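Lecture notes, continued. The same structure-token format from the folding unit now serves as the input rather than the output. Read the line below as a description of shape only.
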């Protein structure tokens, strides 16, 4: 029945059993004869004249689990797949390039995308049918998967020529549509930036924050852009800042934030941020930690500022407690994701009933907990797959201390300590539950995002532990995922580390996310080696990823495996658009190294969004950040002094939100050895070991250098666009 499969220790295993991806390994004992992406599967399809069934997902995807259980573990459906198709499984996180290519087809064919993604291909890997989740039987307005398989098998047997021609024509159209050309210089004006903010304002939910209705995603790149724009004093600046801060306040007060264990779920299924899709992704948490750090700098309200700082601390605590891989005493990395499901039920690990709380808490504690976490007997979460589970509550924090005090009849001054004690009791009990699974692969790109987030949080919140975590993560990547130059070869990154193996060539997201993270780490430490490494990463991007003809940057390097389309991602998706991130990296580094040609190349990449800026601005957050960086007057802060003597000056600078200001830190001994950083060249060194010189410049005009903290603060206050 399973001719190509093997039996190991009494279990059927297919071609995925030797893979390192947790997602692929989840399917290794399916009755489906799955293959990984590769020539063996392609050759089998040609040899047996079968179409390819490509299934793309990821290990913590709830609906991927549902389809796996309903269809891929179903022996009748598996037999159909094995008889009529060559089935290939791809982990979208391991191969974002493959995912990007076929997601573009899925969206073109269906008007929507998502995971699991189901695509049927010809022998030359061109798609002719695509969709997402299919139930085993007709339902939810979708054909049953078994019926769909039978229809496609019938069409292939009798009309394969038509399908091949249709796939070729569709591929050519998508290839032409994806070949966007830059005008050569950014014709995107300042008014376009304001138009983007106005578009966001038009869809802003002024009651619950965020944009549009359910489902709601945090979209940290958009929130970061709004904060940046809010710091400029331009038209609608106050509106932009309000939208970002209000949205973040609602997010951290809602169930999308794990109110006990810390960290954030991927999105909210409702308008109010109450019920999340429970999976926790490293990229979301990294981006939210970073934007919340900047929100804490911008928040004038002390309660709001404290709320942001607490959510940052708890998110990093969760990452350190549950997601950290300790390779060595000074080398760490962070796993990719935590599942939504435990014991086969979505959210089971995270939800509570009022009865559970009453069994764990004293009478007073129960009153406080019910009022604090908005718990009631009716519940706020319904699982459609388990309708018998009733009264389930996702914990939220919508009420103020004053409101909780009145409802619980407790002294408001004593509430913070009592709430913390209640959280400890509940968390200890939750830790005894069966936890969700963790995808333990390590991705360079997502760890690069986290390096920047940890470095910024450490710099702004004055927490050296966070900076140390960032440095140890950078050291792991350098040691395990980076190959230095040898025999005049280009230094290169690997994309993924799993089971003690580094594999898959690094992609644009790896180089650009890590590069920006290293710049943040340089600003937090003054260690010039991080800036030098970021420069190396940019040089690889310019040599291997740039589109010299049309402008912008491809997702994959020029010598990587060729796909039917070489993708160039200009829209933010679950992660920031690599094209925009690479442009931002080039612009920021040009501020340190005075290389105008990097700016020019970045502007060509940014110009790719010119036709889209009015109608699709919500998907362009990272590129809008790059554009705003370019459109803002050149400003810089240089602090020269020993590490210890600079610290009080760095702490004052960190009080201000300065997103478009280039911040450089130099040690006199480094300057004497000719620093590679052009911004530091020519800066006066200091003779006295404890003296610091601060240089603050704008539009190529510098104020008088100062060694006084008071004078430097006055200069910062006067610096244009400082909030």
């Amino acid at each position: 029945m399973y001719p190509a499969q093997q039996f190991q220790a009494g279990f059927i295993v297919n071609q995925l059993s030797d893979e390192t991806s947790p997602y692929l390994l989840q399917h290794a004992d399916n009755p489906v004869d799955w293959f990984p992406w590769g020539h063996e599967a392609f050759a089998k399809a040609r040899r047996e004249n079968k179409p390819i069934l490509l299934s793309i997902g990821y290990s913590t995807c709830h609906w991927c689990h549902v389809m796996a259980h309903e269809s891929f573990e179903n022996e009748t459906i598996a037999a159909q797949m094995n008889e009529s198709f060559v089935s290939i499984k791809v982990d979208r996180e391991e191969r974002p390039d493959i995912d990007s290519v076929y997601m573009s087809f899925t969206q073109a064919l269906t008007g929507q995308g998502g995971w699991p993604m189901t695509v049927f291909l010809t022998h030359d890997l061109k798609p002719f049918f695509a969709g997402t989740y299919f139930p085993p039987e007709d339902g939810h307005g979708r054909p049953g998967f078994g019926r769909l398989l039978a229809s496609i098998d019938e069409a292939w047997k009798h009309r394969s020529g038509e399908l091949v021609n249709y796939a070729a024509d569709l591929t050519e159209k998508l290839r032409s549509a994806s070949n966007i050309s830059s005008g050569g210089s950014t014709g995107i004006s300042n008014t376009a930036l304001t138009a983007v903010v106005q578009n966001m304002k038009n869809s802003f939910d002024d009651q619950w924050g965020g944009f549009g209705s359910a489902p709601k995603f945090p979209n940290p790149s958009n929130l970061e852009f709004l904060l940046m724009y809010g710091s400029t004093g331009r038209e609608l600046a106050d509106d932009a800042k309000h939208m970002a801060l209000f949205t973040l306040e609602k997010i951290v007060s809602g169930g999308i934030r794990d109110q006990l264990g810390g960290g954030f779920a991927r999105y909210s299924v409702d308008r109010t941020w109450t019920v999340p899709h429970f999976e926790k992704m490293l990229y979301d948490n990294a981006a939210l930690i970073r934007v919340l750090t900047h929100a804490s700098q911008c928040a004038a309200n002390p309660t709001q500022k404290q709320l942001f700082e607490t959510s940052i601390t708890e998110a990093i605590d969760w990452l350190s407690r549950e997601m950290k891989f300790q390779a060595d005493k000074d080398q760490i990395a962070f796993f990719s994701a935590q599942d939504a499901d435990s014991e086969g039920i979505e959210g089971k690990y995270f939800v509570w009933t009022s009865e559970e709380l009453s069994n764990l808490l004293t009478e007073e504690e129960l009153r406080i907990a019910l009022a604090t976490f908005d718990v009631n007997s009716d519940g706020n979460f319904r699982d459609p797959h388990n309708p018998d589970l009733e009264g389930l509550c996702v914990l939220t924090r919508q009420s103020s201390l004053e409101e909780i005090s009145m409802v619980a009849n407790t002294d408001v001054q004593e509430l913070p300590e009592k709430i913390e004690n209640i959280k400890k009791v509940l968390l200890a009990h939750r830790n005894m539950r069966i936890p969700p699974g963790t995808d333990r692969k390590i991705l360079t790109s997502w760890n690069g995002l986290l390096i920047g987030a940890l470095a910024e949080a450490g710099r702004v919140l004055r927490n050296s532990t966070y900076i140390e975590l960032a440095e140890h993560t950078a050291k792991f990547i350098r040691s395990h995922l980076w190959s230095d130059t040898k025999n005049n070869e280009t230094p290169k990154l690997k994309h993924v580390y799993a089971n003690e193996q580094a594999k898959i060539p690094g992609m644009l997201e790896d180089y650009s996310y890590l590069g920006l993270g290293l710049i943040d780490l340089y600003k937090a430490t003054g260690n010039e080696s991080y800036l030098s490494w970021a420069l190396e990463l940019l040089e690889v991007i310019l040599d291997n990823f740039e589109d010299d003809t049309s402008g912008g940057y491809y997702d994959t390097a020029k010598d990587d495996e060729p796909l039917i389309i070489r993708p160039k991602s200009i829209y933010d998706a679950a992660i920031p658009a690599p094209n925009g991130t690479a442009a931002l990296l080039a612009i920021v580094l040009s501020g340190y190294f005075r290389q105008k040609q990097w700016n020019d190349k970045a502007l060509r990449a940014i110009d790719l969004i010119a036709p889209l800026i009015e109608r699709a601005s919500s998907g362009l957050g990272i590129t809008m950040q790059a554009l705003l960086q370019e459109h803002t007057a050149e400003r810089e802060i240089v602090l020269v002094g020993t590490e210890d003597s600079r610290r009080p000056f760095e702490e004052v600078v960190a009080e201000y939100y300065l997103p478009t200001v280039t911040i450089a830190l130099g040690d006199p001994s480094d300057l004497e050895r000719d620093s590679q950083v052009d911004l530091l060249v020519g800066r006066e060194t200091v003779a006295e070991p404890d003296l610091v010189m601060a240089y603050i410049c704008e539009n190529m005009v510098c104020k008088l250098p100062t060694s006084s903290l008071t004078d430097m603060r006055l200069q910062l206050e006067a610096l244009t666009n400082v909030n």
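Point for the exam: Residues 145-178 form the longest helix (34 residues).
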